[in-house]
Fold:
Amino acid sequence: MRKYFLVPLLLVASTFAADVAIDRPTVVVVAGAPGDSEFTTVFDSEVKIWTDVCAHAEAKSVIIGTGAADATIDHDRLKQALATEPKDSIGELWLVLVGHGTFDGKEAKFNLRGRTCPRPNSRSG
Structure:
């Protein structure tokens, strides 16, 4: 008798757990190119704070721009992280930019590590 009661209960519980996992918030934390070494410590500290907050809130965290740089540039990592997020989820998506950039009065840019990516409509030469 107990077995027959536990099976449906476990199925409902596992379905609820799957829904919660899918719809939990995702926080993409992007550390920009620090430039001077003094900013590396500041940026790393800020990323650590966000990582701890995500863990406490049971949010999925994606960290970009920390650690040793490799062949994959941070711009591509960011595009991939955003592309893999479900489009039909009710879970929140946060994009946190830790760093600095430039603003020429018309366009703001955030500095990432790696090569500079030209705008799609820019011309070379």
Remarks:
- The helical segments are 2-22, 37-57, 74-83.
